[in-house]
Amino acid sequence: MCLFLKGRGAEAELTDASKHWKMRTASVASRSDPGGLILRIEEVSRREC
């Protein structure tokens, strides 16, 4: 399991990453940054081409 502190572009980053990686994600709103979130990523594996 990995936790990442992300900003406003997190959804776009996940969309781009999903082209090459399979993963289970969950997110929680940041308390310190109104536009940020805490991203939890698990079960990561490379997609087959």
- How many strand elements? 3
- Taking strands numbered 1, 2, ... along the chain, how are they ordered across the largest sheet? 1-3-2
Radius of gyration: 11 Å
- Uncertain segments are none
* Biggest pleated-sheet summary: 3 strands, antiparallel
Shape: elongated
- What level of helicity do the residues show? 10-25%
Output the number of helix runs: 1
Helix-strand topology string = EHEE
Q: SS-based structural class?
A: alpha+beta
How many structural domains are formed by the residues?
A: 1
Mean pLDDT: 94
Spatial separation of the terminal alpha carbons? 25 Å
Strand content: over 45%
Write the layout of secondary structure elements.
Layout: E1 2-6, H1 10-17, E2 21-29, E3 37-46
Antiparallel strand pairs: 1-3, 2-3
Characterise this structure.
The protein has one helix at residues 10-17, and strands at 2-6, 21-29, 37-46. A hairpin with a 7-residue loop joins β2 and β3 (37-46). A 3-stranded antiparallel sheet has the order 1-3-2, with no helix packed on it. It is built from 1 helix and 3 strands; from the N terminus they run βαββ. The protein is elongated, with a radius of gyration of 11 Å. It is α+β, with helices and mostly antiparallel strands and 49 residues long. The chain has one domain.
